[in-house]
Amino acid sequence: MLTRVKSAVANFMGGIMAGGSNGDNFSGSELPLKFPYMRPEFLGLSQDEIECSADHIARPILILKETKRLPWATGYAEVINAGKSTLNEDQACCEVVMVKKKPGGSSTPSKTPTTKRRSSLPNGEGLGLRENADSDGLVFHYWALFDGHAGSGAAVVASRLLQHHITEQLREVLDILRNSALLPPTCLGEEPNLTPGCHRALTRAASLRGAAGAPGSPGTPPTRFFTEKKVQHESLVMGAMENAFKEMDAQIEREKSVYNISGGCTALVVVFLMGKLYVANAGDSRAIIIRSGEVIPMSTEFTPESERQRLQFLGYMQPHLLGNEFTHLEFPRRVQRKEVGKKMLYRDFTMTGWAYKTIEDEDLKFPLIYGEGKKARVMATIGVTRGLGDHDLKVHDSNIYIKPFLSCCPEVKVYPLTQFEHGPDDVLVLGTDGLWDVLSNEEVAEAVTGFLANCDPDDLHRYTMAAQDLVMRARGVLRDRGWRISNDRLGSGDDISVYIIPLLYGNRQP
């Protein structure tokens, strides 16, 4: 087992520096790609420029061309890794999308979603969409980052298709979302709730008095309970995004027998709809809002350590998933055979703290979660616990599938953007883990705030320049001892992708 684990870690971490594949043809598949590898469409790069950007030695930072800008004057910059994989496994997408009813007046989803993308100045973006929004549908802004692993295939597919799944899910509740004066009906086809709090609540005693057979009860038993949860409109948007992630993951699984869709990817998605930002995260990318210099975290990283109890519970409930090779228990270090019968610190899914247990032969199995920080792995193989894809991922040299422990469901956080007045330096920063591995929330906020303070507030390029500066700080400068950042710290050798989204323009949306 130890040899197997060492081989698994070497294969996962080695990349091309160890002579491994970039993952896109890892299985030797002769299947065609669903979408060709490329950099984000909004960068407008030629094939030669894409090839030049893949220089693992120079690591040039790519930014938006002057002739193309994203909605809200969004800033974007990216850089390839220092040799971990042949291709840049990060992908990005940004669109302005209209959700329209299916022809015929029904709001059920159609097979081909109606979407439009706008690459225009913030004072003109989406004008054609907004003109028809009141009568035909709803417009939402969409930003997304995908961080691939074991190949770029899943990240490329998700960057092309996830927004369409979100569109389809929102289409199902389009009529309800447009009628913001009424709470969503509990059951479709019923009249919506007219006013909050209009339902009659019964005490337990009153309910029991009205039960069939109770003294004084009528012949026909009344409804036992009258209370009903009040579901808000924003919960429907959250649910639509959660279901879209699940549909995207299911599509990747269905189509992997038809197309070569390599590896998996994390996903960080932002939707601006009806005055609110919805930030959905599945993985270890991160989003923060910087408002008046204050940092507001908008995502949570999902790692083997942060999801230890969920993973351990699954291993406890379904031990066959561990393949008789792993234990769901955690110990401070590997248990040795000479320690059988002794007492050692441990914890399981019920515990946050630690206690002692008598070591048994079963405890000699390799831990389900092993390592700390960025080195923590699930089944000695993968360092993220949520994302899309990875359906074929197995423990090295075994038939133990890891996918049951990996969730495609995102955590969705909501920011009521239009409830606040934002200045030109208030921004939402999205970054893949290559940024956050070397810079803290506070360091990023300080860097962005300081850079924007020295720019003309009316300069539409200021956010792209700030994104470029941020990527430069995280990548560092190549020296004799590798890439180095401030205070001679080790810079990021990973792919880095960054959006800087000014919130000021959200206040100007109708």
UniProtKB/TrEMBL annotation:
InterPro entries: PP2C, PPM-type-like_dom_sf, PPM-type_phosphatase-like_dom
Region (Disordered): 102-128
PROSITE patterns given in the database record: PPM_2 (PS51746)
GO cellular component terms given for this protein: mitochondrion
Domain PPM-type phosphatase stretches: 73-503
Domain of life of the organism encoding this protein: Eukaryota
SMART domains per record: PP2Cc
A single MF term (Gene Ontology): [pyruvate dehydrogenase (acetyl-transferring)]-phosphatase activity
Compositionally biased residues, Low complexity: 104-113
PANTHER family (UniProt xref): PROTEIN PHOSPHATASE 1H (PTHR13832:SF838), PROTEIN PHOSPHATASE 2C (PTHR13832)
Protein name (database record): PPM-type phosphatase domain-containing protein
